[in-house]
Specification:
Length: about 70
C-alpha cells in the first residue's frame, strides 16, 4: 500500500498500481482489478494509526499491526 497522487494505492509487482476509493472514515474499497477488497484502518485513543484490517471475497478482517 502506498499513497500516490493523494490516493491510497495497492502496489504489486505483477500488476499496475490499483487505487482504492474512500468510504466511511478510515475505510477504503478496492477498484479495478481488486474489486471486493477492503481496508479499514485502526487507530489508538490519540488518533494514531496502529494497524489495519484487510479483506476480500475469500478472507475477512485479516489484521496487520504497525511495527514500532
Amino acid at each position: 500500500m502506498s499513497v500516490q497522487d493523494g490516493k491510497l494505492t495497492f502496489l504489486n509487482r505483477r500488476t499496475v498500481p490499483v487505487p482504492f476509493a474512500p468510504g466511511a472514515r478510515d475505510q477504503f474499497t478496492g477498484t479495478a482489478g481488486v474489486t471486493g477488497t477492503s481496508i479499514s484502518f485502526e487507530r489508538d485513543r490519540s488518533g494514531k494509526v496502529i494497524g489495519f484490517y484487510a479483506g476480500n471475497t475469500r478472507a475477512r478482517d485479516v489484521r496487520f499491526a504497525r511495527v514500532p
